[in-house]
Amino acid sequence: MAFNELANIDKSITRRRRESLLGQRGAVVWFTGLSGAGKSTLANALEEWLNEKGKLTYLLDGDIMRTGLSQDLGFSHDDRMENIRRIAEVSKILVHSGVICISAFISPYRESRELARRVIGEDDFYVIYVSTPLAVCEGRDPKGLYMKARQGVIPEFTGVSSPYEEPVDPNLILDTSQHDIDACLKLATEMIRAAGVIG
Amino acid sequence: MAFNELANIDKSITRRRRESLLGQRGAVVWFTGLSGAGKSTLANALEEWLNEKGKLTYLLDGDIMRTGLSQDLGFSHDDRMENIRRIAEVSKILVHSGVICISAFISPYRESRELARRVIGEDDFYVIYVSTPLAVCEGRDPKGLYMKARQGVIPEFTGVSSPYEEPVDPNLILDTSQHDIDACLKLATEMIRAAGVIG
Q1: pTM, two decimal places
Q2: Between chain A's N and C termini, which has fewer beta carbons within 10 Å?
């Protein structure tokens, strides 16, 4: 076959073929909630559970983004929105690769979660609102961030000096002060199974 | 298990486990060369071949980047470098997901390819230089871009009014005016097999 015959060849490996190879549907499971609510814990538990079932996952979090793709961004409103946009664009590429992308970001603004939904696409975007009350999150304070926020050392800290806007219509709400990790995990896996992400 | 016991849990699904699940090693195969050299054709052929072998791939190209993650960037030197940096950061995430990421970009500057290598990591980055001579590329001119560049309609067009800096030490050189697609594909697959990307 000569090269110029192939100039207009389509991209032939489509998303569906990748998903068929993997036996799963590419999707984004987006954990949102206060610092200390249990997002990362749940995201890790979900990833572990999926991997034991032979599913391919990738966990995207603030550390990965802020030390990589978003290392040029600060924490102004515009930069936060741009950070979310980039997270969403990367997530979309992972979804098209067939990967189940698990995201754990405070993502306090409706505007930014709507941006993510728009970029990723309605059908591939599942929001889990980790609704653990502020008092419980602050009581846990695993990184001492709430204390610093109360002392004014950290400005604009979500829940203390900056708002958290609850999701209007999340796919699932999990309060980790009411349910233990196994119960939360069960609800999360039932949700993604019902959505057809896994069989 | 209570939530606060898990605050310091490690990310437990490592790259190696994903690669083991997939039966392949995550890597970037980066095609560089002039417009019309055959990069996309070879990239598509390689992806098709890998998929038939049950391997998971993702093809990253200019269309995907410029309509997505890099839609805010122009074509100044700084913006082109930033585009390459973002391509590299996304590629790295794909590699860590276990995906074989096939990239097809003119990427004319040594500086930008070195940036990509630095971000992705030496061991995961394989450069295929598609060295088809300018005269052949211009003769093919599948999108009429060379004609427009000669007419001055497109400024700074690689090979015409902007330099292409040949890779110093590519993993493979393929001249599509000397070899047909099957021969080029054979060399490419031998290279990635020798590198341990596939078994």
Answers
A1: 0.91
A2: C
Has residue A157 been placed in a domain?
yes
Which is nearest to B199 in space by CA: B53, B77, B80, B8? B53
Which B residues in the span 130-189 are in contact with A, Cβ-Cβ below 8 Å? Answer: 140, 142, 176, 180-182
The answer to whether residue B28 is domain-embedded is yes
Judged by DSSP in three states, A113 sits in helix
Structural domain span for residue A64 = 24-194
How far apart are alpha carbons A98 and A105 in whole angstroms? Answer: 21
Q: Is B73 on the interface with A (CB under 8 A)?
A: no
Q: Average pLDDT of chain B?
A: 92
| In a domain? residue B74 | yes
Rounded to 10 degrees, what is the CA torsion of B4, B7, B12, B15? Answer: 160
Residues A69 and A90: beta-carbon distance below 8 Å = yes
Q: What is the pLDDT of residue A156?
A: 87
CB A29 within 8 A of CB A188: yes
pLDDT digits (tens, 9 = 90+) for A155-197: 889 999 999 999 999 999 999 999 999 999 999 999 999 999 9
Interface-testing mutation among A1, A5, A11, with chain B (most B C-beta atoms within 10 A): A11
CA distance B30 to B39: 9
**Residue A52 in contact with partner chain B when CB distance is under 8 A:** no
Pull the structure tokens for residue B118. 């630095």
Total domains, chain A: 1
pLDDT for the residue numbered B77: 86
CB-nearest to A6 from B21, B41, B60 is B41
Are A68 and B56 a contacting pair at CB < 8 A?
no
Determine, for residues A99 and B96 on separate chains, whether the beta-carbon distance falls below 8 Å. no
Q: Is residue B49 part of a domain?
A: yes
Q: Cβ of B72: how many Cβ atoms within 10 Å?
A: 10
pLDDT digits (tens, 9 = 90+) for B122-137: 999 999 999 999 999 9
pLDDT of residue A5: 43
Instruction: Give the CATH number for residue B34.
Output: 3.40.50.300
